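Troubleshooting log. The previous run stalled partway through. Resubmitting the same two chains, unchanged.
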Amino acid sequence: MTNHLLFDFTVDKAAKTVSITREFAAELSLVWDAFTKPEILDQWTAPAPLTAKTKYMNFEVGGRRFYAMVSPDGQERWAIQTYTSITPKTNFKLNNAFADQDENPELPGSEWDYSFSEQNGITKVSITIYNESFERMERMIEMGFQGGFTMTLNSLEELLAKLSQR
Amino acid sequence: MRSQVATHMNLRRDIFQAIADPTRRAILVLVAVQSMTAGEIAANFDTARPTVSKHLQILTECELLKAEQMGREIYYSLEIEKMKEIDEWLHQFRKLWEARFNQLDEVLSTMKKKKNDKPSTF
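Second attempt completed without errors. Output:
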């Protein structure tokens, strides 16, 4: 799908933040729902071939979303989002932590800030992600890319090991 | 399996081996901002100092890091040309979001259609 909507992605290595801005051809209330309702979140947050699975979600300050990214072979990677601030249809903030399947979080997590605005039927979403450590930023990438990038590197390592045995 | 350990030392270092390790990728991100001594780099990790030194050695052998003596200290900085190949991994992150948002575009257009077909009652 091609579109002419804005997509801006910057990584500030010193500040350990990733900033993402994207426009969507839909009114704000729809986009807000897509980011705050579990049944819709599960439809788009996992990059194929992964699928997202929300076990439960209470979208309120102090509430949580407990969810997993599921690989085609059924492997689940769980995470907990805790909502720290909500201004309806304008902004919400959350802390995202990796977890085991029993909901034990692995702290520290990353801090996410989502802002929404609409102009002429186009909704702009700005996301800022702050990670305390680079390792965690790495893992965040790996969680999304499980089966993709990480596997590529693993198979590359295997290949290198094989080549070195000759 | 044991022979693998033995041949390890002879393994030709290359950038793929360097980026296969998350700590080494993190070191690269660190020195991208400014050149640093081994001690300054190690201060950013929980890992033991000798482990960090080993990573620095590998990165230097891969020519991803340049080690320069300045006074009593050795400063590590990025080899920019080599780094361009490594920069790909950040690119992957961008791609992840691109893929996600493309999926969201489709979800939104489905939602819009539904909304127009029958006025929502809830």
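Takeaways: The helical segments of chain A are 28-36, 38-44, 134-145, 149-165. Strands of chain A lie at 7-12, 17-24, 51-57, 64-70, 76-87, 91-99, 105-119, 122-131.
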